[in-house]
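Now read this:
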Amino acid sequence: MKPSVFTFILVIRVLQGFAQMPADCQETWIKTAGHPALREGGCNLIPSEDGNLYGCGFRENGTLLFKMTPDGMILWSYTVKLTSGMDERVTGFMEDSDGMLVGVGIFETPISTGFFFRFDPETKQILWVGQYPGQSISYLYTIVEKSLGGNFLSVCSYNDSPPPGSFDDANLIEIDRSTGKLTGINTAFSFGSSESILRAQIRHNKLYTAGRNTYGISYSQMRCALSCFDLQGNPQWARMTMYPDGYNARIYATDFCFDDSDMVTISYGDFNGSNPASSQFAVCKTDSLGKMHWTRLYTVAGNPKIISKNIIHVPDGYVLLVNTTAESTSTATYLIKTDKTGAIQWAKKFPDAISLRGEKGLVILDDYIYLISGYQQDILLAKVDHADGLVSTDCPLVEDAQISVTDIPTFSEPITYIQYPGISTTQNRQVSGSNSNLPVNSWCEMPCLGELCDNGIDDDGDGLVDCDDNDCLCEPLPCDKLYAPNVFTPNNDGINDYFYALASECMPTLKTFRIFSRWGELIFERNNFPTNQPDMGWDGRYKERDCASDVYIYLFEFENTKGEIEQLIGDVTLLR
């Protein structure tokens, strides 16, 4: 089911004069986003410095960038065609220390070729776009900032590598921050017939990587590979893991996270053969030198073909994201949580959801897991409680998954790379894009009702009542401050039936109070009215009809003690 097209106004949160009360819990949800007539999907999701999230995906054969709030409201979206090729997919994405969005990706020409770009989210300007050489296959997967205000490092795999390389080798490149041209580090690394780096992170002034190396020339000799470089591109150590040479296995490491000084890596492949994928994936934990602590092998029920995608660290374990390949009989994305020994805590399946290898589709923000993927012709967005994996009850877009776990050997062997100069030529492009509409459709939500104050009841079940609960404001508000709750229940039970703002005694009136739907439609307005009177608030109705349970945008305007007009903008959940 695709949403209808709505007119959308841009709403920006303004926190001036806002006394925000902490909530005990938050709403979890699954949403789809996309234009009903266009082919879209989600690739990457990252936290922004202002507490929101940036996302990217594709629209038709171009790139779609957007920003959303933690409750899933789209603040803006932007579409651009970054390359001269056909389909383009952003595989690595970050916000740099200047607040710019920087990414790398792959496009088809018809061969796969890498590209990289930098985008100003405030002015919506593409600052630069570079294309890797197009005469041979190249894949760019990750980009990191070398230092605050410094250049960027990216890793790629390049086919037809010249001697002393062999076939496809891993390449480490440096990209100039201002121009997008290659500069500084440009080194290729060879060991067997096929090396690649799929993920990289900088930690303690070192670049840690995960990918695939090959002992010889056979697919069955491919292994999960871990490496560490200094920031001048010199290898500090490199290791083949899981199985020694001579064992029949084809394994790719796609992502890793840090847990204190340890690396925790997720891999996929054929753990007893030479096929590109199987129904199994693995997680291994090593120290900061790549020496193995443990390895767990996970088998997904139903024998689907699985590609591992992401792993992130949460306070009490790890959350894993894997999905089926295009060759599987049905598509699905799996979200799994383990404890710190790799034991499964919960596992969820999102039928019909699909994502590609090499992207970053998971992020943790305020102890909640955010997921981006594709769903049919739309973008799938989800906010999940990492403690139990629940989104809501009876949600058609998610179900429990059956996954078993076993141990495999803790093998790790040091290797030495052959180093040689990498490819140095790139092409820079001039591109332009446009603002775009990205409608959102809510499928499943589990609203979190906060504490209702002064009713003597533990409404949110946290063991705290009324003024003992942080949800309640029981101290006098200072001048020039407003407080607005995040939930109200207009069901005529005499409790929390109106949505209104609380103000101090030195603010007797408010100038403006407006309520908008999530699509920007004005559904309530009141001007120049006294504060702290519930019946002056919104009763949850529009045109004499009850509004549906949903998230609504509010705007209050008031005059502070200096005679200046300030605003309080946010959202409130209406529950019936």
User: Anything to note?
Assistant: The radius of gyration is 26 Å.
